[in-house]
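Recap quiz, item 2
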Amino acid sequence: MNLARTLRMGYTVSGNSRSSRKSIGIWRRRLIELFLSLGYAALVAVPAGGEDWGMGAANRQIARGAVFSPVSAPAGEIATLSWFILAVTAAIFLIVFGLLLYSVVRFRARATDEPREPAQLYGSNQIEFAWTAIPLLIVFVLVLTTIRTIYDVQGAMEPPGAIHVRVIGHQWWWEFRYPDLGIVTANELHVPLSDPAHPTPTWLQLESADVAHSFWVPRLAGKTDLIPNKINTMWVAPHQAGIYLGQCAEFCGTQHAMMLIRVVVEPRPAFDQWVAAQRQPAVSQSVEAHGRQVFESNACVSCHSVRGTRGHGTYGPDLTHLMSRQTLGSGAALNTPEHLKIWVGDPGRMKPGVLMPAMNLSKNDLDDLVAWMVTLK
Amino acid sequence: MAGSIEERIALGREGIATAAELAQPLAGRLHEWIITVDHKRLGLMYIGGGLFYFMVAGLQASTIRLQLAVPNAGIVSPQVFNRLLTLHGTAMVFLVGMPILIGFFNYLVPLMIGARDLAFPRLNSFGYWLWFFGALLLYFSYIGGGGLQGMGSAPAVGWFAYAPLTETPFSRGNSTDYWILSIFLTSVGSTATAINLITTAFTMRCPGMTLNKMPVLVWLAVVDAGLMLVALPPLSAAQVMLLLDRYMGAHFFDTQAGGSALLWQHFFWIFGHPEVYVLVIPAFAFASEIIPVFSRKVIFGYEVMVAASCAIGFISLGVWAHHMFSVGMTPAGNAFFVTSTMLVGIPTGIKIFNWLATMWGGRIRLRVPMLFSIAFLFQFLISGLTGIMLAVAPFDWQLTDTYFVVAHFHYVLIGAILFMIFAAVYYWFPKATGKMLDERLGQFHFWLFFFGFHMTFDTLHLAGLAGMPRRIYTYQPGRGFEELNLIASIGVILQGLGVITLVYNVIRSLAAGKSAGRDPWDAWTLEWSTTSPPPEYNFPEVPTVHSRRPLWDLKHPADPDWRYE
Amino acid sequence: MSSAGEFRIGAITHGIDAPPPIADPWVLPSRGRAGMIALIITDSTFFLIFVAAYVFYIGKSLTPPYPREVLSYPILNTICLLSSSLTIVVAARALHQGAIRRFAVWWFFTLALGVEFLIGTGREWHRLIYQAGLTLRTNLFGTTYYSLVGLHALHVTIGASAIALVMGLTWSGAVTQKHAERIEVLSWYWHFVDAVWVVVFVTVYVISTR
């Protein structure tokens, strides 16, 4: 379409209101202008979103990449199969779309056509057979390759030396228990590197305390659901250290969107160090004693555990080593003392609808409590 | 409306309003519509009602896309967002897709088989009003969902309402109950229509129209109705069970009592997968009528098209758990559903090839119905291929419950189904009203909508691959989702403008459109032999047919179809 | 606008000059029969889901009572319901032949047998609730048992109501031989209800009590 001519038509239409084609031309031009200005406005004038509690900067430090950037055996197998499937479907698309495009161009009705109907083709058994048989063959190949990958991933045997984690999904946070290592943490999963030659994968047992959730960290593995009254199993074997992001992938209520996962993959020595630190009870110095008192005398202990105190609640995340984690609220905010104060004061500000109530503490109590909590490293 | 009463009758407007009716006051004419059992009026009421909810649910989708255009947008709270997504999905399936497609079958099937009405006209009306009130009930939940403790509103459990999120501890108030009851009512109405359509096709064909000579649209209506008969009850049964759980202490999905959350998923998807075929088969039906007429060729491979449609119907009953690849089924279970899902793709592909072969060697007229049909072929091809990707269970373990799936099913629902609904509107509007829709405005509508659709849904495939799950009210910056979501949201504007163009076109054409005559497209099935709009009794004489294209035989007496079928 | 002489793929040229003959008289299946078959198909699917839930939860109740402990074969009910299928066939045949009196008698037997089934079911439920302590909310067995058997009993009630309506119309003299087809269609519904009972009986009383 000749934009210049359309614009010219727009200018000459003012005195001439007869031709509908010309008046359509001015509307076409106005529509284009509207589209362009809206697009410009959207890209420039719209603010880049609301408060992100430091997570934007934190996320940007993590390498991008998801389904097609696997760093772990199951994700890698899936990606390989997926490339193959993409190639096959792309080929099919090119062929069929090519035929469609060709037929629209070649068999278009033209003014120079003779005024009679074209040859009527009722059908052809040979052609029908051909384009039934070929797709059947393609499906046969796809099914076989798919089944192989299914068994590779789901049928894998657990080697000795695998790390075991019990993952328990809650409305809107993740509980991670390492039964063999005797530690409990939340929202941030640490796993050791797995050498492909001598694999030390991490086996996750997935359970739910309330509704259905789904554990999904795309660079590590496909997603597996956490279904109440059912135990599922999955495994990861990451061969590249780093931090990998994921989140719950089964709608589980109000804050499904902020049930984020952070997986820290580290070499075995670093992992062992982390485990040892997690095993310790909470360190408590007398300077923060009042803060600890606030914790123990309020309803906090009904929901939260801090080993070494009177807090043994299991409804909410274990806070013994809260400050060793990078985020608060399962990824809702960066874990800093300022954010912690806002969270404890009114968690609904950072994660509206969250099940933890605003504690309505006095300013003094809140300050002291947070001062104590930041020692929970 | 211009013209004397005699002129209007001569133009054949009795179907919309007889002369006597036009002389009545408005209340009288409204009453005629409320008590009608005429399949044509009920069909138009279904379509009109569906288009109304299309606007409502479309606005809800626009709000969703506005909220997701930038991270942490804060336009709506998570609670409001979750209600929006639930009602958007539920309404689009049950209050838009089903009524519009049932409405078209309602209108067309008797006309295409030379019958006077459906088999059970009063049942038809009953089914419509069940739908009408069921639909009101769903949106009434905004007001009535509060329950005794005022804790509810509209349902916020997603359109597939997984247990135990829908059980009483996790869904307070009455919001979920409105979801259950409204859908239960509309489903009973749809089942009634399905019984009606099947009975009509088997028992009311005009002389000469053996099953072998029914138009493809009627065959597909039969397959569609048959699917409805067996696919809707599982959902209704599961909803009754959920209601018993919530109100009478039953334990169907009560995981604390040993119940199974997966049982709901199985029952839902035993309904849910055939349901998407119930929605797409009418699109196939429209394509099978429109593409031949605008290619000026008989449909290629009639028998194979019919057989493929029946095959799709049967196989689609056995693929449901491909929606459940991530729940932890055994490898053998997963493998079975991979196989069945890929198999259902084969008759589907055969249909695409047959439509292509119909166009091949023809004289393709690129009028608006054909533009939408060609886009349908393009987009349905793509969605079939992304469907193959999703059928590969390991790939699905990454893609399920992400925006890739959202993009895939919107490609089917909008790219295939809605595009063919648009095509059907432009194609049959002249028959129903006696007026042509404006061709220029139709092209505007097409191109605006086409570009907007691709802008939104092509990018959303990539969002899924980038790690964005579905049903999230916001996302954080730095995840790689921002640019894709912004582009997707802008595309909505174009689609909205396209729909507005259509609405304007309809209003303007009803008032002052070009007169259509009986057969504006030079088509071949029986509905084009009667006036536009048809009289209430459809045909002054019961027609007799000898082939699948009765009007072709009349227009080409030296070379009729029955010599070659 | 003829396209004669053009090449056709796959067309069977009959080489005839007259269209194929049309059946005369042009007879199609009756609407009532086709509609009732469709209704039976859809209702069967509805039942199938409740049967599936029952079968799925066999042996999964966390607490008693269990089927084997509290269920006993409903012999009388079953005999009555299944015989009512026979009596309704006799009645329908009588009406088809125009024997209104004979029809009324056998129709009454059908109604009585159907009502007996409902009374018997009610008594069994009374025993289960008050003596065995089994209700809908007791355990998974209670949930699936009452919903499945109750759904069937609801269908029997609907059928019996329709039969009672026809009974009343017969006594008032409104039913004649020309209604034979409608009565036959209604009897199909009744046969369907009986067939469902066979499935429920086998599933609940035979299989799950093992």
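Residues 96 and 180 of chain C are 5 Å apart (CA to CA).
Chain C has one domain: 31-54+77-207.
End of item.
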